[in-house]
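Retry 2 of 3 after timeout on previous attempt. Resubmitting structure tokens to design endpoint.
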């Protein structure tokens, strides 16, 4: 029979000195955010949502640095959602690459979905309504793309440019769809009352608790409020049900404001103040990122980084794409940890709150099943001290067990038992 071998997942040899056990830390309780109202998944996605012809496909092309989404000046030029990986620029990753000079480098990425334009009446099937709403249901966070430029050559679904009217239209459609879904769900639930009563008093009680939650959610939506804006209103039990329902207005959001080149460079635009006021009133805490779609596309089309840098310097501005990607990354509560060595430097993307075994499972499911320990260095310690050996000598190289919550920027080596992974 024999014992299963102990396998150490690491990308460079152990230094001699033993790791120290981590000191116990005080745990600060985190404030619940809309990111809690979703799938606790390893493959989160964000969707670009907006009216037709506001610049979603142009933004998508810039985020993916490729041109796979059809860009045309007609409503509904995207019908099936396109999907791409937007790579996250991270100076920590670049530093590790410079340190290790590895054979392979793998950056972190965010999956972005280009969802077709929504119009008034989408919840009743107008335009290509129902298909669009189901595409939105499949993402974990929403980037609302808003048009804040006037151009007679680019038609608008409502004939005039008014980003606040557009965002109201979209949010109303999402809310109407949520109300309709919750009403159907409630009707189905009511039919299960007698079965729950027959089973046991405990089943009946559970049925009543869910009915009460459904009525609470419906009342909130019917008051014209989005589910994500009621985080202080929802109990832990409500959050469990909301995660199951997957409502459209529960998804965390951010706002990408598409301006013309002149307004973007001077950071002024007549639509910005009304958009800001609307977001504060209707989606407090959500990020607003101004950008210029045509300019970003022009930058991506340049052949060299030098050309891009010269153009940005000439215009005294910066590209908004990195900020857009990193903000979306944080919006759905994603963080990175790193594995680093001469063979490979890699950024792994996980949901904030993952314990060490779950993080190990992102590398391979066997790592989670046979998890023994994680050997951890904080990136800042490694950068400050310069090498793994120096981190160990300073007593900052730690062994962590299965209850350790992985922190953003951890450099980790996992030990696991091969036999348990089978």
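Retry 2 succeeded. Sequence:
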């Amino acid at each position: 029979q024999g014992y299963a071998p102990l396998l150490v997942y690491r990308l460079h040899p152990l230094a001699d000195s033993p790791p120290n056990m981590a000191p116990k830390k005080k745990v600060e309780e985190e404030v619940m955010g809309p990111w809690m109202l979703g799938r606790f998944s390893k493959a989160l996605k964000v969707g670009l949502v907006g009216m037709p012809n506001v610049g979603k496909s142009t933004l998508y092309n810039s985020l993916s640095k490729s041109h796979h989404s059809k860009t045309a000046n007609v409503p509904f030029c995207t019908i099936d959602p396109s999907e791409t990986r937007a790579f996250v620029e991270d100076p920590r990753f670049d530093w590790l690459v410079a340190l290790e000079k590895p054979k392979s480098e793998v950056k972190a990425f965010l999956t972005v979905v280009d969802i077709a334009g929504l119009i008034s009446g989408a919840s009743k099937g107008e335009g290509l309504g129902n298909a669009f709403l189901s595409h939105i249901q499949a993402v974990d966070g929403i980037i609302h793309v808003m048009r804040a430029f006037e151009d007679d050559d680019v038609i608008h679904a409502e004939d005039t440019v008014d980003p606040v009217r557009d965002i109201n239209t979209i949010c109303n459609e999402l809310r109407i769809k949520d109300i309709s879904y919750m009403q159907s769900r409630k009707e189905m639930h009511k039919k299960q009352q007698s079965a729950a009563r027959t089973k046991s008093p405990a089943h009946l009680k559970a049925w009543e608790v869910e009915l009460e939650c459904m009525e609470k959610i419906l009342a909130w939506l019917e008051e014209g409020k989005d589910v994500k804006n009621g985080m202080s209103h929802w109990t832990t039990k409500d959050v469990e049900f909301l995660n199951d329902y997957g409502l459209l207005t529960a998804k965390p959001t951010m706002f990408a404001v598409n301006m013309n080149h002149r307004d973007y460079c001077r950071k002024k635009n007549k639509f910005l103040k009304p958009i800001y006021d609307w977001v504060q009133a209707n989606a407090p805490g959500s990020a607003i990122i101004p950008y210029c779609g045509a300019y970003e596309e022009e930058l991506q089309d340049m052949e060299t980084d030098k050309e891009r840098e010269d153009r940005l310097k000439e215009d005294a501005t910066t590209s908004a794409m990195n900020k857009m990607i990193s903000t979306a990354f944080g919006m759905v509560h994603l963080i990175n940890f790193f594995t680093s060595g001469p063979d490979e430097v890699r950024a792994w993307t996980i949901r904030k709150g993952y314990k060490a075994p779950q993080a190990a499972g992102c590398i391979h499911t066997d790592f989670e099943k046979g998890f023994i320990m994680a050997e951890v260095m904080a990136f800042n310690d490694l950068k400050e001290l310069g090498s793994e050996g120096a981190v160990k000598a300073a007593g900052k190289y730690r062994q962590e067990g299965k209850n350790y919550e992985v922190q953003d920027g951890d450099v980790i080596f996992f030990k696991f038992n091969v036999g348990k992974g089978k």
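Attempt log closed. The two ends are 15 Å apart (CA to CA).
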